Amino acid sequence: xxxxxxxxxxxxxxxxxxxSKIFSGASTAFxxxxxxxxxxxxxxxxxxLPVLNxxxxxxxxxxxxxxxxxxxxxSVFARKNYFYPDLPKGYQISQFELPVVVGGGVAxxxxxxxxxxxxxxxxxxxxxxxxxxxxxxxxxxxxxGIDLNRAxxxxxxIVTEPVMRSSAEAVAYARxxxxxxxxxxxxxxxxxxxxxxxxxxxxxxxxxxPFGTRREIKNLNSFRFMQQAIDYEVQWQIATIEDGGKIxxxxxxxxxxxxxxxxxRSKEDAHDYRYFPDPDLLPLVIDRDWVERTxxxxxxxxxxxxxxxxxxxxxxxxxxxxxxxxxEVADFYxxxxxxxxxxxxxxxxxxxxxDLAARLNKDGKDIGxxxxxxxxLGGLVARIADNTISNNIAKKxxxxxxxxxxxxxxxxxxxxxxxxxxxxxxxxxxxxEVLAANAAxxxxxxxxxxxxxxxxxGQAMKATKGKANPQQVNELLRKKLG
Amino acid sequence: xxxxxxxxxAQALAAKEISSVELTQLYLDRIxxxxxxxxxxxxxxAERSLAQARAADARxxxxxxxxLTGIPLAQKxxxxxxxxxxxxxxxxxxxxxxPYDATVIEKFDAAGAVNLGKTNMDEFxxxxxxxxSFFGPVRNPWDxxxxxxxxxxxxxxxxxxxxxxxxxxxxxxxSIRQPAALCNLxxxxxxxxxxxxxxxxxxxxxxxxxxxxxxxxEDCALLLNAMAGFDERDSTSLYRPREDxxxxxxxxxxxxxxxGLRIGLPKEFFGDGCDPEVMGLVEAAIAEYRKLGAETxxxxxxNMKLSVPAYYVIAPAEASSNLSRFDGVRYGHxxxxxxxxxxxxxxxxxxxxxxxxxxxxxIGAYVLSHGYYDAYYLQAQRIRRLIADDFVAAFRQCDVIxxxxxxxxxxxxxxxxxxxxxxxxxDIYTIAxxxxxxxxxxxxxGFANGLPAGLQLIGNYFDEARLLDVAHRYQQATDxxxxxxxxxx
Lengths: 482, 489
Fold this sequence. Notes:
heterodimer, A: alpha+beta, ten-stranded mixed β-sheet, three-stranded antiparallel β-sheet, 15 helices, 19% strand, elongated, B: alpha/beta, eight-stranded mixed β-sheet, three-stranded mixed β-sheet
């Protein structure tokens, strides 16, 4: 394995979240009965013509800005000609020689914690095109059914340079891209519904040698499958070459059941798509004004936000990265900090990335559905910071908030009498009682058993139902026993 | 009544001299009598036509009539019309009933015009003789052994035989102008983008343009007023303020109505290749224009000779892709038997398309193929640019360009059918206009051996109103356009 270098490039079809299709007014909503969302244009009736949806262009501009690419002032729609029953016109309107987005890059994080390094995956281009319909091969007694609801759905095809060197890098890129397109609001990211589909071009070579022949793994719709498919493909290619075979350029499919990739078609049956500029559409002209107007509506991007979290809140890069994995999480976090105070930025980060994340995960909820709001969480963290409650009690309060037992942390603390006891006199009285009732433990401690001390602290905390400040209890106990 | 102009018909309707229902019936009766011989119409639906006529009469009674309300018009079978079989002259669409209206049809409906029926045409508008139609050739009313020209041959023959007062056509390389010339009609191909292509079955998208075919420039202006206009459903439609294309025609006739007009005569139009008799008629027409006050200047369109080869790369390239949708999957002809998907495609298309359509699909697929694209398609696009530049330069020296529409008069059925190149050359004077996107007209300018000849007028971009005026002044001074074929009582 060591003497082989893996080379991966990825093409991703991102379904753009516009209301209507890229060249017609039909709805793009998922899940309607077959063919009810296909209008005359989508059906390619004789005489119909495409009209470009500006919203799709807007999405492409947003993406270009997010990855630092060049937004082409003029790009051209071209026809990709081939016959297939779910391609009603006999051609797909795409972009070929002049795509709308050129260059740019996506930052990925490799490794964890202290060992994390950042790598930029350079993009070749991103272009607008229309999706095809779906062929349904079941339930038609040996025939195929065609559903054209998806035909004409806007896609942005994002193509990387062949710069990834392992399945882990490929998956890190796919995840980062997935987060980014959702972050900038151009894609719902729903992989089950096909909103985000990746093709991986994989080849292997001896380091320093020219690129090997690639095989393209089509339609990877989960990160796990992507990893498995690439790993299998790499092993297969190495084994094939080491057995004296040659890799033939091919398109392959990954079968999740067998964990193998299988050739679908070879280069010999590759289509000549006979691309030419679509005479029904004018060149797409995007002036600077349009780009600037779009820029003004862009959210702060993940990497910029991450750097700001590190600089402003003193977070570790690890925490900052976790908090900027999705825009909703970052927004939640900042809203919580706004209530808790900047001094509590670090504990807020812990609460969001650890406690809240675990609780959400347990109930299978998104952060957008969290029963505990950012303001509620911020209010809770503020009470820890000002010593009103301990961390342990805070977990109880959090659970109470989750269950809707009160509208604020303060209300729950008040109602359930969870306020920390900080009155030294009261705690001293309590400790005296605990010492008197546990003479045996006191003796053990005096005999040198440190464990007995902890048991005494536990007794004291229990006596206060956890409300005593543990620090204080510790100090006073030592003093009394010392 | 049947030979009256659109303006005269509108007056008759307004004066209650005749109702739209009566007028429509009059034409339907003539069609029933003569269409079996001429074969100008491929689809008729008297019920629908008369229903529209009744609606038009009601509209007129309600005081809501426009210049075309109640007037029957023949529609080239390339326009989708809701509820009408729309075939484009092909077996492929022999069973296709359109569920929607083309913008042109919608506009005529809104104007209250009556759809009299769908006219025959070369299959998918590919042809210059109307012989490639699946529904059989159309015969020229001036000599039924001869072709009417194409591809709008059915429309031309219908109007010439007085089976309709006027008709629509489409022009990709001369398909309005050439049949107009061969049938003694006035036809106008507007500037590309003036009339919406939505619902007009595409042959070559960057060249196709719809326009009127009628008996006079005046009638053409009325029709263009109804047809033209920006359409948001056609991205290549041009947004322009509305204009009245008939605005110049009302000026009273006078001795020298065209004083100051500069007519450009391209030397490439007046060399070899044109029937001398036709050329004589064209030159006589130009002499008439001088009498009307115009002056002539010799100009040159040096790249014109490249227009036919460039056209026969670009048009088939676009057509090969445009016709891919006819695959037998969703509508149209599907082979009765096939073993698999590839066979369903190949058989359906082999059975559904005629020889000329297949030839152009093959040429188109070839010139777009990997390795040939640059040499053919890109090169043809460069030539196209040069041709357009020639016209831009020419219009610095003149206001309109004139020459023959067609190198000859109507030829005999079958005469050129076996020789595609000869057929292609019959559009030698018209094709450059489509490549440049300019407006062009053909108007009757006399007869050679009893057959009509056409004078072609080419205008600068958006100069339709001027072209119509220039044609109208000639028609005020001559009566070639009033001549009718004999023997169609």
